[in-house]
Structure formats: C-alpha cells, structure tokens
Design goal:
CATH class of the largest domain in chain B: Alpha Beta
Number of strands of chain B: 10
Distance between the termini of chain A: 39 Å
CATH topology of the largest domain in chain B: Rossmann fold
Oligomer: heterodimer
Structural class of chain B: alpha/beta
Shape of chain B: globular
Radius of gyration of chain B: 18 Å
CATH superfamily of the largest domain in chain B: P-loop containing nucleotide triphosphate hydrolases
Shape of chain A: globular
Strand content of chain A: under 5%
Structural class of chain A: mainly alpha
Number of helices of chain A: 14
Bound molecules: adenosine-5'-diphosphate, magnesium ion
Distance between the termini of chain B: 27 Å
Chain lengths: 327, 252
C-alpha cells in the first residue's frame, strides 16, 4: 500500500469511528454515553501503549503507573490546589511524561522479560505510594469528589470533550507511528544489533518511545479522572497494565488500529458477559487463547484477511530459496 | 587511518585475540585471512564496539575509539557488515535501506515527517548500485541468500563509511556469486574511495583484490604485507598456507 493511500484509509477509519461515537449521545441514553466515554479513554490508552509494544517491541507491564500518576495529579491539582482546568490538565499529562522519563531511564537498560519485570516493579511502587500517601491521594478510600469544571459536568459535554481529545491524541500517535522516528523504531524492534550499526542509539530511541507512550497514557489517565470524578488506587494496580496488554493483543498489536478495536471489544464483552455470568475472567481467558491460536494478527486480522481475499492486498507469494552459510 | 595496538580479547581464560598490532592505511583494501577460529570475527567485534577488548587500544583517524558503542562509531565513519546475514527481515528491501538512511541523516527523532517519503531517491540509487533494484519491494526474508548478503552490504553503504569492515562478505556463496559480489565491492570502494578491511576465505580472490594482507593465526598476527610477500613468507608457508598458496578454499 502506498503511504498516501494508507494515510487516506486511516483518515477514513478515524472519521467513520468518530462519526459513530459522535452520534451515540443523540440516539442513546446516559448509559451508552457512559460506556462510550469509557471505551474512548481505553482506546487512547491502548493506542499509546501499543506504540511501545507494536512498533517498538517493548513489553511494558507497568503502564498503569502513567495512567494513575496523571489521574491523581489532575485530581489533586484541580481539587486540593484549585488550579484552573487547562494548566492542571496539561501539568498532569506532563507529569506522566516525566515519570515515564525517569522510570524509562532505568528500564531501557534491560531487555525482554527483565524490561517487563522492571516496568511492573516501578508501577507497583507507584501503587504503593498512592496507597500509603493517605493525606494526598486518599489512600485506599480513593480520591473522591474531584473539582471538575462546570463545563464538563454534563455527561454529554464530557463525552464530546473526550471524543475530541482522543481524536487529536490518536491522530498525533498515528503521525508519530508513520514518521521517520516510527520507521527507525520499527528497525530497532526487528534487529536492535543491526540498528546500532546503522548509527542508531537504540536505548535512546527506546527511551523517547517510553516517554511518548507514557505521556499519551497520561492523557487517557487524566480523562479517566474527569470521567469518574474520583481516582481509586486500583488504577495503579498491575491488572490495569494487564488489561491494556490484553486489549492490544486481542485487537492486534501489528496494526495501528488493532488495539483500539481490542479496547472497544473487551469493554463491550465485559459488560455483556458480566450480565450473564460471574465467570468473566474465565471467558476472557478462553477468548484470549482462541485469538492467540487462530488469529495471530488479532481481531483486526479478520478485516485484513477479508481484504486480501478481495484482492486489495497482494501477499508476496515468492518462495524463499535460501542456503545455509558454509560455516 | 585505523591503528590497533596490543589488542587482546579474553573469553573466560581463553585469549581469542592477543598482542594484535595492525595499521590500516587510508583508502586501502586490507584483508585479514586465517583459519577458522583464528579470531577474525572477534577482531572485527572488538574494533566495532560490539565487544569490549580486554587489552589494547583502537584509533580511528587519531581518535581513540576503544570500546565506544557501535552507534557512535558509525557516526564517526566506521561501517560494518556481519558474517551471518543481519538485515531487517520483516522490512522490504527498500525499507531496509530507507531505515539506514534515516539513521545516517539523523532523522531518528523526527516525529512528524512521514518516514516513507524521505530519502527515496537516495535509497533507489543505492539499490541500483548494488543490483537490488528489482527486489526493492520484496520482504528481506524472502530473498535468496546471496541477495541478502548484498542487502547486508548495501545497508553498510547507506551510512557513507570512511572505513568499511566486511566480515566474510561472501560466506556461503557459490564461486560465481562470490566473484560477482567481490567485483561489486571493489567497484564501489574505488568509486567512493573508502577504506576496506575484510575477511574472505577464498584465497584466489583475496590475492586478486587485497592490497595488504594480514595473516591471523590463533589470535595473533603472523605476517602483514603485500599479498605476494606474505605468500612467500616462509613462516606463513609453514604454519598456514602450506600447499594451498595458489588458492585452495579449504584454507578458510
Ligand atoms: N563470545 C565468545 N565466547 C567464547 N569464545 C568465543 C566467543 N566468540 C568467539 N570465541 C572463540 O574465539 C575464537 C575465535 O573465533 P572467531 O573470531 O569467530 O574466529 P574466525 O572468525 O576467525 O573464524 C574461536 O575459538 C571461538 O570459539
Ligand atoms: Mg568469522
């Protein structure tokens, strides 16, 4: 696919999705609006997360940290310190980015499972701080009653604010993914050793990725605070990190929109299945196993496969004649 | 331009390289030969920052580059290719070269310019030069082995090295492919005027191409000089070349 066509298709997908989301408050009640807003927030979370996983091959198991740091920061700045909205919103996001810079600085020194474990360790540290630091965060009772500005109180006004924010942030992430940086990042994922020998400082590329991903995760976290008008310590718990990982894998980490689809499907399934059974985790487990075995490209692979059959995408069917080196 | 003094690499008690002194002069074609396990790859790894040498120094154009990370060395003009094919398997041939060009032109942190649009002409020129133009849109993993080695070479060219280290650029190739790619390497080296330091197992080609030859045996340089002189060196005759001086391939 040529880059121009790829960009056009992405724009069509984004506009189509935005139009559907924009229509929800017009046709459905508060419950749908509430659900839609939650999906939007997780879409952004998953897109931000997948810059690291899909594009950079970096498995973070601690993305809840940036989500929670920004979430708490916004709550505290708005409520405890009565900051005006925009400075507080931006400061919270920047803080998530700074946290990602500091934590990333250590994590990028490790690779593979050690990298993942260290991201997890740091995020549990963030959780512990949120849990223990009662006076500031509300501890395990949570931070209740965030001073959300009046113009965001109405469910539908928050909803459109979230939609706009996710659209802008998502577009930025798309641009970054397809930028010179995005290309280089993919090269470091595929073959870090060779990438070094092209003159790339692989660790620094990874750190930059970490910071970008953490910052955009912070946007999602800030939205989540406005959405709930409270923050609970669970938002820093490791299951939150696992959730976004599962969404990405479910939707397909190899595609830009895969994780967004995964986020929407997972939340809808969660709601639908919890209605009927208390065994949601079991059902989720089965779904994941099926996806891993039968849809290695994730749910988004279903669309791709269909398109390939329609002749849109021609796979390179050349056999790969290869010889082993004599040595 | 490349000066190596007292270089040694110790792998938990075993000296894979020891007491290596080597001078590679500007724009020359310098070959390192030696039996399997002599330490040729280790030497390249120690020069290129892939491996931290246990002893000794490496100087490039008067600058001490010992133990500096590969990405810094590449920026100061040192390029290398690998004995085993080491390309970006899931990218197309074109994207491979483009990634190399983005790195070389310091666009790694350009977050907003669409990557696909950058350095297209330059990438095409390189592919044309190495004869991979028809394969531009193929995924690297689907290329025949010989073509992958060519891509490997092309990747190192993208960073416009002042000195290029090629570790067995023809390993695993048929004699015909070997002669083709060596022709290509020499042609490009002469056109661009970089220094070439390489290892090669085919003696016939080494003698045809190299201007200077270093024989490495058990991690130590045995002799260095013009190919003809090295070939006639009695010590080299005895220890290494034996009866194969006229081009036996089993010498590798
Ligand atoms: N990473 C390593 N650890 C331990 N021994 C090694 C390592 N790399 C190479 N060697 C040993 O060092 C010697 C030189 O290897 P190498 O440089 O690959 O030789 P060549 O490239 O000349 O065939 C060999 O005996 C090899 O087994
Ligand atoms: Mg070798």
């Amino acid at each position: 696919m040529s880059p121009a066509i790829e960009a056009r298709n992405a724009a069509l997908v984004a506009i189509g999705a935005a139009a559907i989301f924009a229509a929800i408050p017009m046709f459905f009640g508060d419950f749908a609006v509430y659900l839609g807003a939650e999906i939007l927030i997780y879409i952004l979370f998953a897109l931000a997360f997948n810059l690291m996983l899909g594009q950079g091959g970096l498995v973070s198991f601690g993305h809840a940290a940036y989500f929670a740091i920004s979430g708490y920061a916004l709550a505290i700045l708005l409520t405890t310190y009565s900051w005006p909205f925009w400075p507080a919103f931006i400061a919270a996001i920047v803080l998530a980015g700074i946290a990602a810079l500091v934590i990333g600085y250590f994590c990028i020194r490790l690779t593979a499972i050690y990298f993942a474990m260290l991201t997890l360790a740091f995020s549990q540290l963030v959780w512990a701080i949120a849990f223990k630091w009662d006076d500031v965060t509300g501890g395990d009772e949570g931070f209740i009653g965030v001073a959300v500005p009046v113009w965001l109180v109405e469910p539908s006004s928050f909803y459109y604010f979230a939609l706009g924010t996710v659209l802008v942030a998502g577009t930025l992430l798309w641009v970054i993914t397809h930028s010179a940086f995005g290309r280089v990042l993919r090269a470091t994922k595929e073959n870090p050793q060779r990438a070094e020998f092209l003159g790339l400082n692989v660790r620094r590329v990874r750190l930059v990725t970490f910071v970008i991903s953490g910052t955009f995760t912070g946007i999602a976290g800030a939205l989540f605070t406005l959405f709930n008008r409270s923050v609970f310590v669970e938002s820093a718990w490791w299951t939150k990190s696992a959730e976004v990982l599962i969404m990405s894998i479910l939707g397909g980490v190899g595609s830009f929109f895969g994780p967004a689809l995964g986020a929407a499907v997972l939340i809808l399934l969660d709601r639908a299945i919890t209605e009927f059974t208390q065994y949601w985790p079991t059902v989720l487990g089965i779904i994941l196993i099926l996806v891993l075995f039968f849809l290695p490209d994730g749910l988004i692979g279903l669309f791709r496969r269909k398109r390939a059959e329609d002749g849109d995408e021609l796979g390179d069917a050349d056999p790969a004649p290869s010889r082993t080196p004599a040595e | 331009m490349l000066t190596i003094r007292d270089l040694g690499v110790n792998f938990s008690g075993f000296w894979a390289l020891k007491d290596v002194d080597l001078d590679v002069s500007e724009k020359s074609r310098h070959a390192i030969i030696g039996p399997n396990g002599a330490g040729k790859s280790t030497l390249f790894n120690a020069i290129t920052g892939y491996l931290k040498p246990t002893t000794g120094r490496v100087n490039l154009d008067g600058q001490d580059i010992t133990g500096r990370p590969p990405h810094e060395l590449v920026k100061s003009g040192l390029g290398r290719s690998f004995q085993r094919v080491n390309v970006f398997q899931d990218l197309t041939v074109f994207e491979n070269i483009q990634a190399a060009l983005l790195a070389h032109h310091s666009r790694a942190y350009d977050l907003f310019t669409p990557g696909a649009r950058l350095y297209r002409a330059e990438a095409e020129a390189i592919l044309e030069q190495v004869g991979l133009k028809d394969e531009a849109n193929r995924v690297a993993a689907t290329l025949a082995y010989g073509k992958q080695k060519q891509l490997e070479f092309a990747l190192s060219l993208a960073s416009e090295p002042k000195i290029l280290l090629l570790d067995e650029p023809t390993a695993g190739m048929s004699p015909r492919e070997t002669s083709e790619i060596l022709d290509l390497i020499v042609r490009i080296q002469e056109a661009q005027g970089f220094t070439l330091l390489f290892t090669e197992h085919d003696m016939e080609f080494v003698f045809a191409i190299a201007e200077t030859l270093t024989v490495l045996v058990q991690g130590r340089p045995l002799a260095t000089g013009a190919p003809a002189d090295v070939r006639d060196d009695p010590e080299v005759q005895r220890v290494y070349l034996g009866g194969h001086a006229s081009g036996g391939k089993d010498a590798a």
